[in-house]
Amino acid sequence: xxxxxxxxxxxLVARVPRLPEPGETLRAIDFAVSPGGKGANQALAARRAxxxxxxxxxxxxxxxxxxxxQLLQAAGVDLAGVQVTDGATGIALIHVDADGQNAITxxxxxxxxxxxxxxxxxxxxxxxxxxxxxxxxxxxICALARRAATRGAxxxxxxxxxxxxxxxxxxxxxxxxxxETEAEALARDLELSDARALCTRFVGTEHTLVITRAxxxxxxxxxxxxxxxxxxxxxxxxxxxxxxxxxxxLAAALDRGADVDRAVSEGLxxxxxxxxxxxxxxxxxxxxEIRALADTL
Length: 297
Known about the structure:
Layout: E1 2-5, E2 9-15, E3 30-36, H1 38-48, E4 53-60, H2 65-75, E5 78-85, E6 90-96, E7 102-107, E8 129-132, H3 138-150, E9 154-158, H4 167-172, E10 175-179, H5 180-189, H6 195-202, E11 208-212, E12 218-221, E13 226-229, H7 242-255, H8 260-275, H9 287-294
Parallel strand pairs: 1-4, 1-8, 2-6, 4-5, 8-9, 9-10, 10-11
Antiparallel strand pairs: 2-3, 6-7, 11-12, 12-13
Helix pairs in contact: 1-2, 1-7, 7-8, 8-9
């Protein structure tokens, strides 16, 4: 079982010829409203990758609440842990350019109300993979990671968006997933020279670091050393949600018993496939296509 504690948003997406400069107004090519939020995205990604998934978080009492959960419901994600709270559902304002690159602003709304106590001890077992991100309060993430690790659950943290992480949290995380920018920020916080030095810090420990590098693939650590895995070659039309597809698929693979090598391959396959489709949740691939593409890596 993959248990996700995280954000639910609605994405307001404008497709533009290029990303605007500060103070500049551009005419959009088109506009779409779709469900998002890193917690919800990764929950759906893990579900489509074949895992049983429970999601814990918050939506508001507003017109955005139903769109935020519609694809999750359709996919069979267990939403009993999603609470309806007075206030606004989280919103992401997204620009996507002609090359598929994006710029995103997030308004947390009731995601700020997420609490570790929402997740019962019964959901944190030895056969549980707890998946979290950083779009809900950090103090609650730390509290839930500590409780989960103590109870023997596997804790997977996608440390995005970048934030200063307490060392105690890193001690409780079995698998830490960051992109290159987030890796450099974490290295500075830990007084290390760069992302490579950060990798070295993880080598030989029981903790795994995964650094996603977009089209270049991923770096990841093990007891033996640092490994590099290339990404599949695809033509990207939209990179929104690619990192969430990677993380959800990797968590699903680990949850079913795959080793880290295979889990990274499936994460890369899922992220690449997501880049070939528009949207975040709508782009999340399914387990058969993920595994077929991962077999080629």
